[in-house]
Design a protein that fits this description.
Strand order of the largest sheet: 4-5-1-6-7-8
Distance between the termini: 59 Å
Number of helices: 5
Structural class: alpha/beta
Number of strands: 8
Length: 206
């Protein structure tokens, strides 16, 4: 491609540069079914402009994608979402949001490479979508926490009822969140980091 003299090539924005104090980086994956809020969570909490791979939904997905409860969605993630957040001056989390439709789940294998842990985002209107997601994490041995995204029209259940429905062991944290709010999404990530720390401490003392 030929560039004109008037063309301007720019690099990353100043705010996108990794802080010079960063000493450790951790890869975290945000997973869940279609329309549960993964892209929203990455976008709300990321300190850099998030990378998204959303495409407009077309008639090709009719009868293939289960969008019950998400009828108003007009776009969907087809590869991944990416963001970054500094938990402390030394610790940075790289966030990878996975595509929700089952036909794109083959991409999960690459996204999970090197991941230290995961957040499973769920929608109580479509709880059954989470079963296969959790099963895949358990098969891979990836530690995870469960975050219940608080949709306005979603039914609300006691946490212990949700734990029983999802067949979650007592040690796996389950929390409520609003993926649209930065503070709420950050709290979910902090819950995951505390859980990963507890696992590491238990392994060290074993």
């Amino acid at each position: 491609m030929d560039f004109k003299s008037s063309d301007t090539i720019t690099g990353p924005r100043a705010e996108d540069h990794l802080p010079h104090t960063a000493q450790a980086a951790v890869k975290i994956v945000i997973v869940g079914g279609f329309g549960v809020g993964k892209t929203t969570m990455v976008g709300s909490v990321s300190e850099i402009r998030p990378l998204t791979t959303e495409e407009t939904m077309t008639q090709a997905g009719v009868g293939v994608d289960d969008n019950y409860g998400s009828d108003s969605k007009t776009a969907t993630t087809v590869a991944m979402d990416f963001g970054r957040i500094s938990i402390t001056e030394q610790l940075v989390l790289y966030l990878f949001g996975t595509p929700g439709q089952e036909r794109f789940w083959f991409l999960w294998n690459g996204l999970f490479e090197g991941a230290l842990g995961a957040v499973v985002l769920i929608d109580t209107r479509r709880l059954e979508v989470s079963f296969d997601v959790i099963g895949r994490l358990e098969e891979r041995g990836v530690p995870f926490v469960v975050a219940v995204n608080d949709f306005p029209d979603a039914p609300r259940y006691p946490m212990e009822d949700l734990r029983a429905a999802l067949d979650l062991p007592e040690e796996i944290p389950i929390v409520k969140c609003d993926a649209r709010r930065r503070a709420s999404s950050r709290d979910v990530l902090m819950t995951l980091m505390r859980f990963l720390h507890s696992i590491a401490m238990a392994s060290a003392s074993a």
